[in-house]
Protein 1
Amino acid sequence: MTITAKVISKALDDSAAYGYRRELRLKEVRRGMLVAPLFFYITLIFALPIVLMLIRSIEDPEVSNVLPNTASLIQHWDGNGLPRDEVFAALASDVKEAAGNRTLGQAGSRLNYAIPGFQSLLMKTGQKISGTPIVNGMEGLIQIDRRWKENRYWLALRDASSQYSLFYFRTALGMSATETTSDGRGFYFDVLARTLWMTFVVTSACVILGYPLSYFLANSSEALRIKLILLVLLPFWTSLLVRTTAWFVLLQKHGLINDVGMFLGLWSEPLELIYNRFAVYVAMTHVMLPFMVLPLYSVMLKIPSTYLNAAATLGAPPLRSFWEVYLPLSFPGLGAGILLVFIVTLGFYITPALLGGPADQMLSYYIAQNASNFGNWGLAAALSVLLLVVVGAVILLFARLRTTTYTQEAGQ
Amino acid sequence: MRSISNNLYSAAALAGLLVASTVAARADDLTIATYGGTFEEALRKEVYEPFTKETGINVLADAFSGDVGKIRAMATTGTYNWQLAESESVIAAIGCQQDFLERFDLGRLKLTQNDFVPGSLIECGIPDVIYSVNFAYDTNQVAEPGPASWADFWNVEKWPGKRAMRKSPNGTLEFALLADGVPMDKVYEVLSTPEGVDRAFASLSKLKPNIVWWETGAQSVQLLADKEVAMTVGWNGRLYSAAHGEGQKQIKTVWNQFRWETSMWIMPKGAPNVDNAYKFLEYATKPELIAEVTKRVANGPAVLAAGKLIPAELNPELPTSPENLKNGFPMDVQFWVDHQEDLTERFNNWVAQQ
């Protein structure tokens, strides 16, 4: 074969390889196209709102947009006593302009988060200033309202003067710099602790009730199993709201349980079964149980009964063979169940809202309250981020636990 | 993974629902949101239906929840669930200050400030009725002579039984101060000081073990009808219709130390079909129509000319009748614009402490 022929054949090979690679790439793209709708859907409906929420929690633009001169000047103030006269003058002219544009209320509502009453102070100042030609700085403002002599209002202004801040996180964690309401401090921190505790209790209850049930399901005859699984799935397919309302009907003061109990003479006064933690636990456990049972059951189904027989033949008493053979084999299902129940329960809203008392509300309730009732989206976003962080931490913790269990098993 | 597919199904269902709800309304329809209940029923019978007959403009009803955040979201995103809502004055005032509500042009309604109860009109709210927060008791559970003041409402030794109150500081704190001996005309003065707020909470704490909290107006009368409580705080219209319901004659409303406020029409800023909304408002503020609504729900008319059209026998049930008005006090709207959030937070915190 001549050299030319070799070159030509190599070139042919190359082009064939190129064509083949091209084909492969195209295939890849075509395959990618299959998931593209889902990808865009998830990005648009799920990822983007979360990113926006993250941004919203640190955005603090109202004061610097509405009162720009004051915001830039007051940042140089050291925070002692009162700011210089030119800051007063800047505020007077900013307020006058904002009152004309009708934007003053936006700054007012943000400042009102820091000091309740700041809103009306600003609106009042705006009204008074609009009528007068020029307000001469400090004296003029103090004449309109004596509160302008108080250091804390100016501190709140300075605190709100940058585009981005951790103000809402500080409020969420009860570390607000300017606000001194004695009772409100750390309120959301308590709520977070309560949310975690309630989630823990519900998850534990689901494990305690769900594990034996799953075992029973996995080890019963085929015909019975199908019927029983249907009993687990039926409530699972029923709307959360319907199930919560059903508990409402059962537990209320003159509900089914109280009426039947009193009719049978078991108790004479109606029991307090609703609007308390008990009702919330009962209903949430009921709602979450399938999330525990289904993964557990599917894992247990695959555990061969021969393993337990083997353990028994080797002389292990039932408890030991359960503890050392069955339980570790069911760990994947248990882990998945716990993770599912824990994460879903953390975000519970409707069940505590309907069945719980004021002390039984979880973090979601307050997120909703701030977002819808008050329109305080910054705080709602900060609280949501807190919840997100907790969920992330739980997932990480689980991932770590699982890898350590696996490495241990591998080591053995 | 059943849970994920389940979530996706519900998300898809939700998306479908959203699409459906946006296309359901025809372009020239008018959607009006209210708190519902008997008041909406009265509006539908006395105002919506004749209005549609006369103008051909279809009125759709929506639920109003008094959520400031939702109205602001409508105005900022330009997606409107409704054009008009029948709202509390605090929301109208907040919306005006934060500029997410439309400022009304009274001239287009052929009305002037003097047509309304003095002080009730604001730039962003066209008043329709005046209602009140009272308390009522069940004469089957409470011995007559029954309680006649907030101090009596607090007195569980003389009149035992649970009390239902709204799970909100709004109103509750004022009543706590009244129970503690603050006169009606000094309530907001006291409540504006930190010591006054402490005093209100201290007073509430005394009654706390006997309080059942409600969140919707329907719950307030339901609790009383179900005998869950012996007394309840409630809106006068709800109490009136409950007392006139089947077999509920035992509910008695107390017309002393009640708090009255104006309820008004509001429109989110930039709402579509402004012309239709104005047509509706012009129609709905007609004295004879307001009088008819008043007769059904026992709220006082905010349009002065309607007052003359109301039969005298209804007077004992109205917050605006001369014999009742002198025993009540108006809500301080600006106080609650300033303090709705901080006092709600403190209130929630207080409520949560066992």
Protein 2
Amino acid sequence: MAEIALKPAEYSAGVPRPAKGRPAGAILENVAGWSLATPALVLIWLMFLGPALVVIGLSFTDWQFGMPTVAWIGLDNYVELFADRVFWISLTNTLIYVGVLVPLSVGLGLGVALLIEDGLSGSRFYSAIYFLPVTATMLATALAWEFAFHPSVGFINQIFSFLGLPTTDWLKNPDTALFALVAIGVWQSMGLNMVLFLAGLRAIPKDLYEAAAIDGADSFFERFRRVTWPMLGPALVFVVTVTAIRSFQVFDTVAVLTDGGPNKATSVLIYQMYQEGFSFLRSAYAAAITVVFLAFTLVLTLAQATLLDRRTHYS
Amino acid sequence: MRTARTSLRSRIYSVLRHAILLTGGVVMLFPFIVMVSTSLKPPSEIFSPTFTLLPQEWYAIENFREAFTRVPLARFILNGLLVGATIFLFQALFALPCAYALAKLRFAGRQMTFVLVILALLIPPQVPAIPLYIGMWQLGILDTYAAIILPSTISVFGIFLMRQFFLQIPDDLIHAARIDGLSEFAIVWRIMLPTAIPALTAFAILSFVWNWNDFFWPLIVIQSEHLATPPLGIVFFDNAEAGTNYGPLMAGAVAITAPLVIAFLVAQRRFLEGFAMTGLR
């Protein structure tokens, strides 16, 4: 997304058209442009930008859902938030979730894409299998995972005990619950990363590999190091950021499998926001959590923009 | 000598490649296997200490009948279709004219409009949730189809995607249409729309998959069982069964997962192309 902002020249270039020379034509084009863009613009303000500003404003008030009065309380919500043990647990959990999920999901997605693209047979078959979880309804597959994680009859414990590995009640054990959710998240998200990497790999000009081969780079790892990896750079930055932003939004599996438990071990930012805002109806407090969440998302986007910017300068 | 060695090596590599991809593939398919297998079994086999792929006693009809009668599962699926289709129609209705204006018209404020689209693209869908909920409460439309549909009537991603597509369409086509006396409005719907069908199809798939699978927003605005979309419906079912009646529950999960999975298997290439487009940004 932020790649766009980096190339203003390309986008500010006007659409070339025969010179009309008459101001009437320009006025008509202005009218046409505005009347075609305005309905969408109004909705963008109503559904995204306006509410985002309202959330920020709301986070400085004491409003609770349904209350007749509202008062400006400055930073009080944030003071309370930063003293809130559950907030720090949720934030830490979210960061652990993202920090473990992203390398696994991106690494496995890249590995599978390389293996699929490197061979002649079965490419479509394999990409279909690995992509299947992306289209499947997360809620439904989460219930299947819940059954697979079942402590006594679950498939996972049966395999683990067959292999002589330790078993546990994965989703109820505070030490493992978050990582069980990470496993589900990796399973669900890596297929999309694979597809994005496949598109990136297919965009690499084949003559680069031929040139590298002439230079003596004929092993898989040499070709990867000299051609694939540098050429895949921008795609990699994009995939990492998108995966990080998406996994920051983790909610479905938490809400349906663990309710943030046991003992807050799987409470994450959006889940806490949901509880405060829609269960306890503390709208302003939930708005403050939303602002923190938004800030993290924007930092990730900014990091992506900076990285891509530096890369374009080097290349 | 050398070629013999490389061909042996490449054969080993090929076997290894298939072995790795197949093993990983089984892991990827495993939740689906668990889901389908469980939906075919009677409770006694589900809770037996050894896992079997196929049931000894087929119990599929009982499980699926239970799933479709205990909760209005067919209604959930219809709701999903209705909501998904309506949302996509609105998204196309608003995105196409705006994308055309951004790609092909010079108007004061075009840059600003595009900046706003990009800004909105950066805002995760959970951020506007609280104000939208308050707004809908004031309008008295919580717990209605409108509450599910309204926030998604605009897709900034759709605008962005269609704009990128329209940029590639030659201006001559538009000039010809103008010379024929078509208004800009008519150009959008009679010239641009037909040329945009491939991109629009890809976007339709993305939009439908996202909205069919969305859980967060329906969970917030819908209380009535008969208005639930598929993911919310399966949670109502899960709560009603207290999470112990796995056979019918997995049958329900199969029923709401099947439409998209089948659609994907039928139109695999279109799905993959569509999702690869999310990388265009």
